[in-house]
Amino acid sequence: LEEQIRRSDRLKTIGQIAAGTAHEIRNPLTAIKGFMQLLNKSLNDRGMDKEQGYVGIVLSELERVNGLVSEFLLLSKPKEIKRDWMEIGQVVQEIMPMIQNEAIMHNVTVLYYPQPGLPPILADKELLKQVFLNLGKNAIEAMGEGGTLIIREHGDPGGSDKLAAEFIDTGPGIPPDVLDKVFDPFFTTKPQGTGLGLSVCQRIVDDLGGTIEVSSDEHGTEFTVWLPCAKT
Ligand code: ADP
Ligand code: MG
């Protein structure tokens, strides 16, 4: 618990800094992107292939910066969380097409085990989709040579008013000395990583009144998201 408090304090500080700067960065980015697209079109009209290639690189790098800024904005406290009752399975279903798409590109099989009859959860659907997507993407990215991603949902056998969504992969696992760092902002082991995905997940799940847990060994990794649900 102490660890979780430390984590969420650090996230608050980062979130405040992020909130102040992310919007300021996004506005000029939008202008740059717009004019780059116009330039791209002119170059295309003139058959200037080489120059169009340069602009293409600028545009794709812009997308990366944009992604980073989006994660910053999510780290900053959302203005207001819109919590509603919903089926956890419905949330998983809505991210499935995106997960499947990513999985195909990485030669990963996705197995989803819906569990009918679970009580509804209290959550913000868009934010929760962001969490599930991040966990799914991380799992798929971890399985470089293909593998299996299992997504499960279940109640608490202990009988608490929480239920869980699990993302289990057959990747290489997270070394023990790294395991307590994965939620730290900017911690990444990927050449192109931002290290913000799990910080964003942690922040959102915190705000939804849930918890997020990880366990891992050399056979794979399991992330579990506990969310408040209706009493049964
Ligand atoms: P990023 O994906 O940009 O690296 P994240 O915050 O999403 O940032 O993840 C941080 C780090 O945690 C990753 O770089 C990776 O080392 C580790 N990680 C997260 N999920 C997994 C997973 N399913 N299997 C192995 N390592 C993982
Ligand atoms: Mg990630």
Automatic annotation (TrEMBL):
Signal peptide: none
UniProt-listed Enzyme Commission number(s): 2.7.13.3
Entry annotated with the keyword Kinase: yes
Reaction catalyzed: ATP + protein L-histidine = ADP + protein N-phospho-L-histidine
Gene Ontology molecular functions: ATP binding; phosphorelay sensor kinase activity
UniProt keyword terms in alphabetical order: ATP-binding, Kinase, Nucleotide-binding, Phosphoprotein, Transferase, Two-component regulatory system
Residue ranges constituting the Histidine kinase domain according to the UniProt record: 20-231
The protein's name in its UniProt record: histidine kinase
Higher taxonomy: Bacteria, Bacillati, Bacillota, Bacilli, Bacillales
Residues of the full protein shown: 128 to 359 of 359
